[in-house]
Every structure is written in structure tokens, then in C-alpha cells.
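Q: Given only this backbone (372 positions), what sequence would you predict?
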């Protein structure tokens, strides 16, 4: 199954509002569709990444740096293909974070081709631990007063009505006191069996994260606290936070390799590995991290991208739950995929189609395709 050519299609959908997290904002939802064509007529197709300004840089990396290394290689030899692409990261003057995203795009499409060649969904090929997996929503973005924004109450009720098991609520961009009040509103808007986690996106100091935990301990039993502390000392701070607060800590989306994740895992800083395959080199690298986490009896999650994470998390015994945004926050997922899984009692069934099992809407791709 030799690789003949690689096609890359950047997609950008403008959002109806400015979504603000702790210290960042999103006005567009972007992705990159990657197609790997083989001499057997099998086409591996995937979509990855959530980068706006750097979209063209990633596309250029795939077309000009990765594709020439892969043409002629056997796509079924995933490790050989991945090792060939890794050479592109050795340029110390390049942005490795973007290069690893480019590797992820191609690696995911290669795995889709492998699954299709064997007529097996990837979650089964990678282990098949679970036929269903829990699903949660991501919300709680800060309001800026702009048109189109929804209240915390309506945000929570949307996910409750959607049928997901719980919600990851955004904090870290205000004082712990203000965020605690927002958390109280969210909890009051949901039924008792709807669980919450929070995500500070590295927005708090250790003292602030502990203060938020103290202020909300009588309000909600958090399933986990994601990226509670500032990036420059996050390993030490998260280690201390989880021991002092007793709240499980999730982190890893800001790492781009198994080597970075090994420091998090070995240091006792986290309870859940939240490594992102689309930011850190693809499913090949994610599965290495998951194996390391299993040695430490640690759960594994995945930063958004439910169409991919459903396969990764269903494949291993220690998978936690997949994440979805509100349709207004991620119109690509809710509109480009024609065969979305049905949510039933907080869970979705793993896909039965070969590879990733995605049916992508050609008209949607044509409409939102962007060119240089």
C-alpha cells in the first residue's frame, strides 16, 4: 500500500461570537483535511488541528516537508512513516509545535488508510476495550457583552438537553471568587446526576487554584481540574495542588511529545493524561503516551476532536470520556460529519465503519475551504 500523493485542504468557519477562555479567544473554528492516496486505491482521510493564523504554515509543512519523505513508502508500516516524518522536527529554528501538528495530520490519515485496508474500525484495531464511551460538553466561556452570547444557565441546559454525561466548565480568566460564583450558577442549572469538571487553561497561580477549590468544595464535587496552574512551573504547582486539594488533576494538551508527557506522568503532577493526538504527532504518539499512563494506573483523555478521540479512548481500558463543543463553537464537527454518533444516556457507541469511519460532507468542505 505505497503512498502516491498527499492532499491537504484547510477549512475555516467563522464563529458567530468571540469565545473567550482564561487568557485566549477564538473567533474562527479551523481544521485541516488530509488525504493520503495509495497505489491500491485506498485513500486515508482525516481532519486535525485547530490553528487559525498558522494554518498555511502547517499546510506548507505537509506539502513541502513531509510529503516528499513519504512518497513511495508503505502506508501500512505506520512506525516507518512516523519516523520518516519525525526528521522534520530536528530543525531547531523551526516551530516544532506546528511541525508536530503537521505530522499528526498525516499520521491520522495513514491510520485511516490502514483501517480501511483491513476493513476494521481503528478503535478495534488499537485494542477494542470499550464498545461505548462517555461523552461530555465543553462550555462556560466568558461573556464579553457582544451579540449572540448565551447565559451560563442556557449553556448548561443545552448540554443537559443534548444528553451528555457532564460538562467541562471554563475558568481561570477571572478571580477565584468570580469564577466560584459562575460555577455555582452552572451547578444550579443542571440535574444532580450531571457531573462537572473545570478547565483553567493554565490561568491560575497555585494559590488561586486552591482558593477556587476551597470556595466551591461545598457546591460541587469536581470530577477533575484541568490545567489549574501557570505554565512556567506547572509540574510542581499541579503536584502540590492535587495533594493539597484532593481534586484529580488533568493536563497534557500543552505537551507535544511522549517525552514531555513522561515528565508530567512520572512527577506525580496529574491523575489524567490529556495528551492531544492532533497537537502532538498523531495517534502513533498518543498510543505511546497511553501505554505509559497505564503503567501508572492513570486515566487518559483527549483534548476535544471527538471524531478521533472516540477511537483512541474506546481502544484502551483506561479511557475516560470524549469532549464536544456547542454547535456554535464547533460548526465543523456538527455540520461536516454526516454520520455523527447518537448520544444515549451520556454515552456514544464506537463507530463501526472502517478506519475512522467518517463520512464528510463534500459541499461543506467546498464552502469553507480556504486558499492561500
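A: Predicted residues:
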Amino acid at each position: 500500500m505505497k503512498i502516491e500523493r498527499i492532499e491537504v485542504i484547510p477549512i475555516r468557519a467563522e464563529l458567530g461570537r468571540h469565545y473567550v477562555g482564561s487568557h485566549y479567544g477564538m473567533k474562527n473554528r479551523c481544521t485541516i483535511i488530509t488525504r493520503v492516496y495509495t497505489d491500491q486505491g485506498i485513500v486515508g482521510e482525516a481532519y486535525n488541528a485547530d490553528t487559525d493564523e498558522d494554518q498555511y504554515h502547517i499546510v506548507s509543512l505537509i506539502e513541502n516537508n513531509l510529503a516528499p519523505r513519504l512518497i513511495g513508502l508503505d502506508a501500512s508500516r505506520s512506525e516507518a512513516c512516523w519516523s520518516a516524518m519525525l526528521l522534520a522536527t530536528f530543525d531547531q529554528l523551526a516551530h516544532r509545535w506546528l511541525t508536530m501538528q503537521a505530522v499528526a495530520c498525516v499520521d491520522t490519515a495513514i491510520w485511516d488508510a490502514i483501517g480501511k485496508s483491513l476493513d476494521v474500525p481503528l478503535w478495534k484495531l488499537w485494542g477494542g476495550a470499550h464498545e461505548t464511551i462517555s461523552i461530555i460538553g465543553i462550555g462556560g466561556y466568558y461573556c464579553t457583552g457582544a451579540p449572540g452570547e448565551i447565559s451560563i444557565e442556557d449553556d448548561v441546559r443545552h448540554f443537559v438537553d443534548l444528553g451528555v454525561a457532564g460538562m467541562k466548565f471554563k475558568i481561570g480568566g477571572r478571580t477565584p471568587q468570580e469564577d466560584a460564583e459562575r460555577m455555582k450558577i452552572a451547578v444550579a442549572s443542571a440535574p444532580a446526576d450531571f457531573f462537572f469538571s473545570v478547565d483553567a487553561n493554565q490561568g491560575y497561580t497555585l494559590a488561586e487554584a486552591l482558593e477556587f477549590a476551597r470556595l466551591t468544595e461545598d457546591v460541587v464535587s469536581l470530577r477533575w481540574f484541568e490545567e489549574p496552574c501557570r505554565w512556567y512551573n506547572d509540574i510542581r504547582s499541579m503536584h502540590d495542588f492535587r495533594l493539597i486539594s484532593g481534586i484529580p488533576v488533568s493536563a497534557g494538551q500543552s505537551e507535544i511529545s511522549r517525552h514531555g508527557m513522561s515528565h508530567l506522568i512520572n512527577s506525580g503532577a496529574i491523575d489524567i493524561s490529556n495528551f492531544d493526538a492532533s497537537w502532538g504527532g498523531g495517534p502513533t504518539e498518543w498510543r505511546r503516551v497511553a501505554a505509559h499512563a497505564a503503567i501508572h494506573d492513570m486515566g487518559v483523555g483527549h483534548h476535544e476532536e471527538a471524531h478521533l478521540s472516540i477511537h483512541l479512548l474506546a481502544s484502551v481500558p483506561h479511557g475516560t470520556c470524549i469532549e464536544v463543543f456547542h454547535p456554535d463553537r464547533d460548526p465543523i464537527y456538527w455540520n461536516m460529519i454526516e454520520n455523527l454518533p447518537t448520544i444515549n444516556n451520556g454515552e456514544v457507541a464506537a463507530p463501526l465503519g472502517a478506519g475512522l469511519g467518517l463520512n464528510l460532507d463534500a459541499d461543506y468542505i467546498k464552502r469553507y475551504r480556504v486558499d492561500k
